[in-house]
Amino acid sequence: MKRVLVTGSNGLLGQKLSDLYTKIEGVDFLATGAGANRHPMGEKLAYRSMDIRNKDEIDALFADFRPDTVIHAAAMTNVDQCELEKDACTALNVTAVNYLIDACNQYDGHLIHLSTDFIFDGKGGPYKEEDRPNPISFYGESKLVGEKMIQEKAKKWAIVRTVLVYGIVKDMSRSNIVLWAKNALESGKEINVVTDQYRSPTLAEDLALGCRLIEQQEAQGIFHISGKDFMSVYELVQRVAAYWNLPINHMHPSTSEGIKQAAKRPPVTGFILDKAIRELGYAPRSFEEGLAVINAEL
Ligand SMILES: NC(=O)c1ccc[n+]([C@@H]2O[C@H](COP(=O)([O-])OP(=O)(O)OC[C@H]3O[C@@H](n4cnc5c(N)ncnc54)[C@H](OP(=O)(O)O)[C@@H]3O)[C@@H](O)[C@H]2O)c1
Questions:
Q1: For residue 35, what pLDDT is reported?
Q2: Above 90 in pLDDT, residue 277?
Q3: If you measure from the C-alpha of residue 109 to the centroid of ligand 1, how many angstroms do you get, rounded to a whole number?
Q4: Which of 99, 194, 273, 295 is the most exposed place for a label (fewest CB within 10 A)?
Q5: Domain locations in the chain?
Q6: Is CATH 3.40.50.720 the right assignment for the domain spanning 2-166+202-226+272-278?
Q7: Averaged over 213-236, what is the pLDDT?
Q8: CB 121 within 8 A of CB 82
Q9: Among 223, 187, 228, 186, which residue's Cα sits nearest to residue 206?
Q10: Which tens digits make up the pLDDT trace of 150-174?
């Protein structure tokens, strides 16, 4: 049986990967995360605690489980926190990646590493895989350094870049754009929404399926995996409102300049998905189909 290990299994992608892999026959799946397991499956999920900042913990677990594939979903993902806590960001998004590369190389494992549209400066999106990175935040910079280490040192690797992931899972460490928009619109509070940031938002289930295709095909190289619909964040919130029939009279258009945040956001990202569709058979859902998935889970 092929052994697949995921890091960060309590996170948004990590939980969706656990949902997906526990339904797949012929794969020995192990979920790992920092601290206790928070997946609703509880003890039915094969889970081991693994803090990826601890090389000894990684080495001991790899010696025991010897994964054929590692899907590396753990990271420091809060962009403003990365800007403010640079050492902590580097420990997680750079140093820990180095530990995982060494561990995968030792057992000839395929390392599938998650990265981000924030490695780009947002002046020329939507982007394809070979476009030139130029991060404008510390988070983006840290993820790009991780990518470069993988390309230089890992024996078998894939880099999966993704964009603005949304979905619903239990005990989330942080919210996401769709749940934030839905809650804010329902509460009727005044909200400012940016009109000058463009994205191709990604349903977490689609991202998990993209990772599965790469694992199954043992595909190597860089892949852009996101949603297929491209829109401004303002339009995104309008479409959330339309889907759930919520009023938008408390929503105000704003520029990025008008919203004070510690880290800069790239204005226009979003991805061109041709490579993933052609080479992997990736088939992303539309934004409204993604909202329907969330609606069914609520
Ligand atoms: N979400 C997005 O919009 C987005 C966009 C582009 C790229 N990405 C990338 O996609 C990947 C998955 O993102 P996500 O949305 O699933 O992130 P997430 O929900 O924030 O999950 C990240 C997970 O990493 C775990 N983690 C933190 N420190 C750890 C440690 N020392 N050891 C082990 N695990 C640790 C967190 O644990 P706790 O839950 O206990 O905090 C969390 O469960 C990341 O590489 C991210 O950079 C995400």
A1: 95
A2: yes
A3: 21
A4: 295
A5: 2-166+202-226+272-278
A6: yes
A7: 98
A8: no
A9: 228
A10: 999 999 999 999 999 999 998 777 7
Which of 7, 12, 45, when mutated, tests ligand 1's pocket best, judged by the most ligand atoms within 8 Å of its CB?
12
| pTM (predicted TM-score) | 0.98
Helix and strand counts by DSSP (H, E) for the chain: 11, 13
Residue 77: what pLDDT? 97
In tens, the pLDDT along 107-146 reads 999 999 999 999 999 999 999 999 999 999 999 999 999 9
Pocket test for ligand 1, best of 6, 13, 18, 93 (most atoms within 8 A of CB): 13
Ligand 1 interacting residues, C-beta cut-off 6 A: 7-8, 10-14, 33-35, 51-53, 73-75, 77, 92, 114, 116, 162-165, 173-174
